[in-house]
Design goal:
homotetramer, 151 residues, alpha+beta, Thiol Ester Dehydrase, Chain A, 5-stranded antiparallel β-sheet, two-stranded antiparallel ribbon, 3 helices, 21% helix, 32% strand
Chain lengths: 151, 151, 151, 151
């Protein structure tokens, strides 16, 4: 298991937030959001985050790069329901030369509903593993100063 | 609107049948299958049908062809529920040189639940419209003799 | 087939617009939005429209009512792609005492990509058909004056 | 994090296998199965497993019970592609009085593609946590003798 940390339920531990309203199609016969949709919520938020930091997916694509998901983890704390507006809090948690990890917290009206982690690699569009872009490694280093040796 | 016929609820009007068990993820908070899933059921059945007639999607791909959906129609007659085993009846209803139409009937224990139609074109993988494969036009002609002029 | 009109590609024929950004999960191996997702886009927009006219789904629920989809039609004119921002134009096209019809046009940067129709009934939460709420019949009458007899 | 073990890539470590053919709708613009679908594959296989051991979901429902997913983990080792037939290997890995854990391995032609874990609770249909059914605790004990103290 590559994923190395359990994300917190404190929104102040996250650097970015993105709002998503639950669609009816995302509910299931238990009357709540089906657990598979959280990975899509994380993904939409990740795309918004990368655009926010000035490196939208188009930049990856133009560089011939993709960032496949290597691992995912979700803790379903409280269910979400149709038409609720979720805030997806996101943190670039760490990066090595080959992989990076994102942490997520979903809240509704400030109440924690779900936490999660995704671990990503970097490949060429042909699928060959390659180094992460330097800006992403730098960004992770700046975002998580406490994890740098000597600090 | 290209689609030209309303599919019947008589299974004997269909040439092929394919079974699918409803997944929990496909239900919604009304406790029934969400209406968007029927297009995926039709698609899975279409793929099975093309393999059955000896022209699997790999043959299309190897020929550099795709068959994008141009139109879809679904009539939701009675809902389907989690774990029900649906029979998707399928008929290649018609074909021109540029498009073909598939009719569908979904039954559970012989009871009609849904009918539908998809209309497909034929393009190169680059998206340029091209002629249907000859075998598909021939197949449609043989399947629907009553629709041919002079017969 | 209950659905009675083909929606136009002129945005000025629609009374309401709702924006949705294409998610990566909604794409398929042809590199475009999978055709089943348009029904979810229509649904999200319908929910936004009903809230906009002051009758959110919670009002339906509190009245013990649901509006199941009876029929759907989609014409896929041009594909949509990941991260494109779609505008879903919506029109309450007609209503009888038992059913109502919504028309949809999806544009990206003013270019028509897709049109569609959904036909809805009205049932109790137990699934028994019942009359549409009066406000909805009135709303449809006001929205489509040209269709009223004697006008 | 409740989940306690990383599932192996050895099919002989699993007690049950279920086959699923990849649908086109499950692919994404990278040409592979979108990572969110694995949770649906695990779920379909879990439902088949519970029927196989003689306790289908209907038994849960008739007893007024549900088994919500509390946590999920997926390791995406090699991608799956459209029309591939996956074998989902499943193991009831452990159970306490309140939760149980399932391990999964997905192979195609014997090659490991993905592993995963789901952790489930047990609630009444009203959402109140309750004890697991006794048969499930017994089943887990019999399936994993090596994990019992003193054996």
């Amino acid at each position: 298991m590559r994923l190395s940390s359990e994300p917190t339920t404190d929104p102040s531990d996250y650097e970015f937030a993105h709002r998503i309203r639950v669609r009816f199609v995302e509910t299931d016969a238990m009357g709540i959001v089906h657990h598979s949709n959280y990975l899509a919520y994380f993904e939409e938020s990740r795309v918004a985050y990368l655009a926010h930091v000035g490196h939208p997916f188009t930049e990856w694509r133009d560089a011939g790069l993709e960032s496949p998901v290597l691992e995912s983890f979700v803790a379903y704390r409280q269910p979400c329901r149709f038409d609720e507006v979720m805030t997806v809090h996101l943190q670039l948690a760490s990066a090595t030369r080959a992989t990076f990890q994102m942490n997520y917290l979903i809240t509704v009206d400030g109440e924690p509903r779900s936490t999660g982690v995704t671990v990503h690699g970097c490949t060429t569009t042909a699928g060959r593993p390659t180094r992460l872009p330097a800006w992403l490694v730098d960004l992770a280093a700046r975002r998580t100063p406490e994890r740098q040796p000597g600090v």
